[in-house]
């Protein structure tokens, strides 16, 4: 007798870590395919932009937090840098090892973003794509990224954001409310998970607010750049090497 199918695991805006991790465990196998369908292929362009902004170099040690199935980590590792792909979902990590486990300079580590299992000042660069929004204490995660980064090291966060144009913002919200759930149910393995995705994007703060959080954690030279009319935004900063005044937040 075959086992009964698992009930869909759907997180909510309380973002209980166990619930969020369980939800991602269930969508791991078809996660990348669903992302391609939902973003009409823009996810590859956003990943390339993130890699360029991180600017990985051979010999560097880079943390890719909320790495999921490791697509972003593999992109970074092609530079020759030593890349650690960290995620709190065992299912995502297992899928990442299956797909990219043959890359010698890429390792996979299970990690809680609010309590990273790494030493102070360990990484030359840290990055996080579409994961900060899923953390129950995002400011704590930003502080942890600061802790594990070497002085002078780089931060790059790519996250869904708020389109600044009113008309495009309305079109984007219509897509999120009416089109995205249908695409997710057609292509994905847990359509309810993408209901949560839409809710989490809607309740996530705008670009300027996230930039302020990054500055408050101690990062300097903080700025952001909109991609795809502000559907996502690339935030970056630098860990100061000594006594330094915070940099400006700019669009």
Automatic annotation (TrEMBL):
The protein, known as: Demethylmenaquinone methyltransferase
Stated family: Belongs to the class I-like SAM-binding methyltransferase superfamily. MenG/UbiE family.
Keywords: Menaquinone biosynthesis, Methyltransferase, S-adenosyl-L-methionine, Transferase
Gene coding for it: menG_2
GO molecular function: demethylmenaquinone methyltransferase activity
Function comment: Methyltransferase required for the conversion of demethylmenaquinol (DMKH2) to menaquinol (MKH2).
Originating organism: Microbacterium barkeri
One GO term of the biological process aspect: menaquinone biosynthetic process
UniProt xrefs under Pfam families: Ubie_methyltran
Pathway(s) this gene product operates in, as recorded in its UniProt entry: Quinol/quinone metabolism; menaquinone biosynthesis; menaquinol from 1,4-dihydroxy-2-naphthoate: step 2/2
Binding site residues for S-adenosyl-L-methionine: 69, 87, 112-113, 129
Highest taxon, organism lineage: Bacteria
Broad class of enzyme this protein falls into: transferase
Enzyme Commission number, as recorded: 2.1.1.163
Recorded catalytic activity of this chain's protein: a 2-demethylmenaquinol + S-adenosyl-L-methionine = a menaquinol + S-adenosyl-L-homocysteine + H(+)
PROSITE patterns to which the protein is assigned, alphabetical: SAM_MT_UBIE (PS51608)
């Amino acid at each position: 007798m075959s086992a009964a199918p698992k009930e869909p695991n759907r997180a909510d805006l309380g973002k209980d870590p166990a619930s969020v991790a369980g939800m991602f465990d269930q969508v791991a196998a078809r996660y990348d395919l669903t992302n391609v369908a939902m973003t009409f292929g823009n996810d590859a362009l956003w990943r390339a932009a993130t890699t360029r902004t991180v600017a990985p170099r051979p010999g560097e040690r880079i943390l890719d937090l909320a790495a999921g199935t490791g697509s972003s980590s593999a992109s970074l590792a092609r530079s020759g840098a030593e890349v650690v792909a960290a995620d709190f979902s065992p299912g995502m990590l297992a899928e990442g090892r299956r797909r990219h486990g043959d890359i010698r300079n890429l390792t996979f580590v299970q990690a809680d973003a609010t309590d990273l299992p790494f030493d102070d000042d360990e990484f030359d660069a840290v990055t996080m794509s579409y994961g900060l929004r899923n953390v129950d204490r995002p400011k704590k995660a930003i502080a942890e990224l600061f802790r594990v980064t070497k002085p002078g090291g780089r931060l790059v966060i790519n996250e869904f954001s708020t389109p600044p144009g009113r008309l495009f913002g309305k079109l984007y919200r219509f897509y999120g409310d009416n089109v995205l759930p249908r695409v997710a149910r057609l292509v994905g393995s847990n359509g309810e998970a993408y209901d949560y995705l839409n809710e989490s994007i809607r309740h996530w703060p705008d670009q300027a607010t996230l930039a302020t959080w990054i500055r408050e954690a101690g990062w300097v030279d903080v700025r952001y750049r909109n991609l795809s009319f502000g559907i996502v935004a690339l935030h970056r900063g630098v860990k100061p090497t000594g006594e330094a005044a915070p940099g400006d937040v700019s669009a």
